[in-house]
Amino acid sequence: MKKISKNKAVVVIRGAGDLASGVAYRLYKSGLDVIMTEIERPLVVRRTVSFAEAVYEGNVTIEGIEAGLAGSVEEALSLLEKKVIPVLVDPAAAVVKDARPAVVVDARMAKRNLDTTIGDAPLVIGLGPGFTAGVDVHAVIETCRGHRLGRAIYSGGAIPDTGAPGAVDGYTLERLLRAPVDGVMAPRCSIGEQVEKGDVVAYVETTPVYAEMTGMVRGMLKEGLWVPKGTKIGDIDPRQDAEYDTISDKALAVGGGVLEAVCHFLNSNQ
InterPro entries, from UniProt (predicted)? Predict the structure, then answer.
């Protein structure tokens, strides 16, 4: 097996959705090697800014950074040499044991700790609620919109999950598109498209999904995925200056918090 360079810190990010991709962007731009893991069929809605899309497409480029699907740890290390972010279908993150990274970031946004432990790597970081710095991770990054967004927390946890999305221009739950029934999802509009309140934007089986507000479709699940009732299948952004093909302000803020924690760790261990 290829060996990881001892001169570069390798970071394994569990999850490759839009927030995880913002973290990967910050770390990659700062010169760190990043490996991402995903499940076999990611339910990612902001597909134009998520490296998880490489699981379906093989390759994806976001803001000039390429990610590629890797079939093995060996292939992942080869992609790193080509300056490509490897995405492994590896739900259990076996790559952590195989590659022995300096840093593990749990960016799955499960709102609870699924299986991450503070012993997974010399530095373990959790995004959002569900983790406690000093107990199951070394640092937690705040993901709740507001004054504390992106803050690195070295003792304690993030703001508890409220069950409601943060407000954007005063809209919260209206922004989200959810599956009304169990079934196969079929979009009726594209990411980046403007929609009006009341438009049919998707179907789950034969049941229509209506836009509850006017705005731009910023995220939409991939066609043909089976989803249980209540699953988030897309979202709408009411802002006039909304962008669908660049990493969001929130993802970059969270990525900045991770970068701070990584630099803090590396500098204290020199």
Answer: Se-dep_Mo_hydrolase_YqeB (IPR017695), Single_hybrid_motif (IPR011053)
Cβ atoms of 94 and 113 within 8 Å: the answer is: no
Q: Is the distance from CB of 234 to CB of 48 less than 8 angstroms?
A: no
Tokens coding 244: 């669908």
- Which domains, ranges and CATH numbers included, belong to the chain? 10-160+249-269 (3.40.50), 176-237 (2.40.50.100)
Distance (Å, whole) CA 200 – CA 210: 4
Give the pTM.
Answer: 0.93
Q: What is the pLDDT of residues 188-238, one digit of tens each?
A: 999 999 999 999 999 999 999 999 999 999 999 999 999 999 999 999 999
Asked if residue 234 lies in contact with residue 221, where contact means CB atoms within 8 angstroms, the answer is yes
Distance CA 154, CA 240 (A): 37
pLDDT (tens digit per residue) in 159-199: 998 877 878 888 889 999 999 999 999 999 999 999 999 99
